[in-house]
Design a protein that fits this description.
Length: about 240
């Protein structure tokens, strides 16, 4: 999720040269589709197994990331938003199954702890992803900047031959470097999105074992809790 959100915003900003309006379309499509997927998954888990729902959601998420990796600086904003929406919908479909499996396996007395564990695990994953993206992005920017501005004539290898007799701060040179930077940013994000898609597919391995498993004695715990709740309610009334 961190890769899709941050990478999508960076792609719009650096590859498409879009502003807040374009970023709102791309990230809004992702968030809206994710919310819709999470809502639908709550109803669909009554019909389909948790394992099937999760695998289908992971497949959609990976497909959305692969689709995002195919875009170039010439792609329309709405088309890029469509790929982020596919990822968001697939990710949303996995929300309810994993939470349901956790709370059902833990038992009724541990619903809160199980739900919190799932949320914390997701936050840790996003934090690790954000840290990896930040480290990769900062080192890449530093390396490219050193390549361009490392010496007086280093920038000439990144611009057309007919502009190489012009100074670095010439308007046409700056425009040519911007075009090169946009294509470079797009190519870098292609790799990032593909790595994220591969990591998403790896999640299918534990998803294959996903099912509702109650702890021994969980049914008795639930029955006892129900009796206690009914007794407390009768006292309250």
């Amino acid at each position: 999720m961190a890769t899709a959100i941050v990478g999508g915003a960076v792609f719009v900003d650096r590859a498409l040269y879009g502003g807040p309006a374009e970023q709102r379309v791309v990230l809004g499509a992702l968030a809206g589709a994710m919310a819709l997927g999470a809502l639908l998954s709550g109803f669909l888990t009554r019909v389909f197994s948790l394992r099937l729902m999760t695998l289908f959601g992971l497949a959609l998420s990976a497909g959305g990331l692969v689709w995002m990796s195919m875009w170039t600086p010439d792609v329309p904003t709405n088309a890029f938003a469509a790929s982020t929406a596919v990822f968001g919908f697939g990710f949303g479909l996995t929300v309810t199954p994993r939470s349901t499996a956790a709370v059902e396996a833990a038992g009724r007395r541990a619903f809160g702890a199980a739900s919190a564990t799932v949320t914390v695990a997701r936050m840790i994953g996003m934090a690790v992803g954000m840290a990896a993206l930040t480290a990769f992005g900062s080192t890449t920017i530093t390396r490219i900047s050193n390549e361009i501005y490392g010496s007086g004539d280093a920038y000439k290898q990144y611009i057309p031959a007919y502009l190489r007799d012009r100074p670095l701060h010439d308007g046409l040179v700056a425009q040519a470097l911007e075009i090169w930077a946009a294509n470079k940013a797009a190519s870098i994000l292609v790799g990032v999105f593909l790595v994220a898609a591969a990591v998403t597919l790896v999640a299918a391995v534990p998803a294959l074992a996903l099912r509702v498993r109650r702890r021994p004695g969980a049914a008795n715990e639930n029955d006892g809790l129900a009796e206690e709740t009914e007794y407390d309610n009768s006292i309250a009334f």
